[in-house]
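**Polypeptide and fold**
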Amino acid sequence: MLSLVCPLCQQPLQAEDRQWRCSTGHNFDQARQGYLNLLPVQHKRSRQPGDTPGMLDCRQAFLDAGHYLPVSERINQLLQQGQPHQLLDIGCGEGWYSARLQQALPDTEMAGLDISKEAILRACRRSRQIQWLVGSSARLPVADASVDALLCVFSPWFAGECRRVLRPGGRLLLVGPHEDHLLSLRQRLYDRVNPTPDLLGELPEGFGIVSDELLRYPLSLPATDLANLIGMTPHSFRSHPERQQALIESGLADLQVAMRLLLLQRH
């Protein structure tokens, strides 16, 4: 189990039955579903932060259909290389990548964190072997230098926090879109396709690059799965519904996955 700290005062948390307490008197109840909510109200930027239930429904259906299996397999291979004892999946969503990674690393103590309580509730139904946390990636409720590996798939990350919680030699795997990712989809949904933000930008202080690779493969989707792909992304509310429906009805023959996997190591 990961070494957790209080999100209010950063003192170590200790479990007492189904309650977690710090030395200053803050306490947090573990939910009956198994997760621990370490996101104080004052750290929320909205009433229900994170993805909407509709987006989660679409993502769960799309991932369960296996369309991103090659991505998951490569994530597992890259993280197996370091043989981590403790691993945290930042922005784990409903836990699809985390659960598959836990199967590949059965001896690793694994936790998944997401700002969405609804996502974590779904993650609890995926696996009871993983420590599920509601929390913010901007304020990771994890002790300094206590984690061997971090995973971040299509989610915000903060270099200072990642550096703080990783042990020296610990690894951070970032997974995000290359500029060509789902390009034909974006070209059909918008008059102008905006550039894809760089996954890394400048290399943050305290990290070195272990590997940097591009995973590319074609994606052939029936109408239902194409609708789920659109529905699980911001395209669902940024693009016109009429364009979405026309694209779902016509299909898309030249769709391609292009994901960048960047493995960093803390000095």
